[in-house]
Amino acid sequence: MTSETSLHPVIAAVTDRIRNRSAALRGAYLARIDALRKRPRGVDRLGCANVAHAVAGASANEKMRIVAEKAPNIGIVTSYNDMLSAHQPYEGYPALIRETAMKLGASAQVAGGVPAMCDGVTQGYAGMELSLFSRDTIAMGTAIALTHDTFDAALLLGICDKIVPGLLIGALHFGHLPCVFVPAGPMGSGLSNSDKAKVREQAAQGLVGRAELLKAEQAAYHSPGTCTFYGTANSNQMLLEAMGLHVPGAAFVPPNTPLRKALTEDAVSRVLALRQRELPIGHQVDERCIVNAMIALLATGGSTNHLIHWVAVARAAGILIDWTDFSELSGVIPLLARVYPNGAADVNQFQAAGGPAFVIRELVRAGLMHGNVPTVDADGMAASGRLPLLDEAGALHWQELPATSGDETVLRGVASPFSATGGLKLLSGNLGRSVIKVSAVPEDRHIIEAPAVVFDSQEALLEAFKNGVLERDLIAVVRFQGPHANGMPELHKLTPPLAVLQGKGFQVALVTDGRMSGASGKVPAAIHVSPEALAGGPLGKVRDGDLLRLDAVTGTLEALVPAEEWAARVPAKRSDALAELHAHDLGRELFAGMRRNVRTAEEGACTWL
């Protein structure tokens, strides 16, 4: 592994800038968690009645261990439910963790559960308006679980889109505790993601019916485990590996296998070792750790959602990052992976080619990632570049990777990347600041100049497509989709119709203050436009027929309207009917306070600041 003296100068400069910008906030954060670390352990500090309540449900042996023997007690925060395929395998984890902890002279209790919604179920429907806010709800649920304040360490069980960021934000607010994240792995490969996308486009054109579409979708999403495309859930796992918060190499091992069981057991011993090493998560997640996560995202063409989520994660650790930091890093980080929607492969093929371990090893050796950050393994980032295996006796060990990728159509080394720069690009101009996932878009579509067609809802765009009135070059502007307006839903339902139009040879792009998810596809999409339209942002000034230019080469997003005319325009207002629609039913009333108080997308869409 490389020394920090050989770190790329841009990475060093961005890291230093973040460190300096965050100095006061980070210093105050560390002072608070260090004060908490100095207290006596929970059951020694709490009153007798409090302790009795805390252990009342435990066995006699566990009570003896926690109270009399003063053995470490691990809090488990789980996002288990059995309708979310990625989280269904967690059902048996608490029993396995408790059993393992007992063998190691410790104890473990489920401190609490947090909600875990599936964006795949809610895409295009009202539930998606609660999706982004579920992240902070999960963070609060994590805090409620750990606020019993009787634990010496914590294991966090979660994988998917908002769940991992929420658990991590919550854990960082208990930064005095050692923490390890425990994944469960992806489902086996089913119908390929590209074949699934073709059927979706056929359905959008009316060429196949509901029965054929449902058959294809069920062939793609077919068993316990994470969905196999490289969306937000699997990007979460890549970032946790790069941050050293997993048992090394744990991300993409399939569920319900001997290796997965061994890795889960090992997570228990790792979190106990972190306690002995006096390495709480608040110290472990420093500015270098955050930069490593940003680099891993860029090097693999990961989810655009993390330009929101990791800003919030960093803020929870007293660290301030913004989209300019991402953009400058993207200029020097090579794209090493082609995983759908950035290529044809799924995450199982990515793992078989070398997976996160290969990416991390390549980046650290090239001076493109911090190699000196503390991780859950005492060997640090060196261990993150190895693969876990079981030997003939069933014992867990790690081995060095081959020098080259197992499949260079999926994964490449730094010497021969798919692209010299990262998979994400910052756009700015008179339409605001936004981001685009360029790694998924063909190069001949990186610049789109076309007339605007303006919509105030995704439903209006879908209706226009259905009526055949979008058969031309266009840039679809879908506004009033920001966090203040309706919780900033993903607009992934728009991908098939826009892809159909693009497939017919039209110049097509999307510009929105909403999100497009980690599954953003081959249609150019300037997303997360800030400030959002409801806050008086410039998307409110766009009129049908305005010539717009999205340029992912120069990093600009402009309405080509004379400056005087543009300055004089009054932003459009959202209709009362649309406001009423997004305020009521299916739980939306409960999140009114979050909609009022939420920060901008570039500030992490935080509701707790």
What does this protein structure show overall?
Helices cover 40% and strands 13% of the residues. With 609 residues, the chain is of the alpha/beta class. The chain folds into three domains: 4-39 and 71-188 and 223-400, 3-Layer(aba) Sandwich (Rossmann fold), CATH 3.40.50; 192-222, no CATH class; 424-603, 3-Layer(bba) Sandwich (Glucose Oxidase, domain 1). The strands form three sheets. An eight-stranded mixed sheet has the order 7-8-12-11-10-9-13-14. Helix 5 packs across helix 12 and helix 9 crosses helix 22 (495-503). The radius of gyration is 24 Å and the shape is globular. The mean pLDDT is 94.
Please give the radius of gyration in angstroms.
24 Å
CATH fold naming of the largest domain: Rossmann fold
The CATH superfamily of the largest domain appears as Response regulator
Mean pLDDT: 94
Order of strands across the main sheet: 7-8-12-11-10-9-13-14
Strand content of the residues, in percent? 5-15%
- What class would the helix/strand composition place it in? alpha/beta
Tell me the name of the CATH class of the largest domain: Alpha Beta
Shape: globular
Kindly give the count of domains.
Answer: 3
CATH 2nd-level architecture of the largest domain: 3-Layer(aba) Sandwich
What is the share of helical residues?
40-55%
Low-confidence stretches: none
Question: What is the tally of beta strands?
Answer: 14
Protein name: Phosphogluconate dehydratase
InterPro entries: 6-phosphgluc_deHydtase, Dihydro-acid_dehy_C, DiOHA_6PGluconate_deHydtase_CS, ILV_EDD_C, ILV_EDD_N, IlvD/EDD_N
Enzyme class: lyase
Keywords: 4Fe-4S, Carbohydrate metabolism, Gluconate utilization, Iron, Iron-sulfur, Lyase, Metal-binding
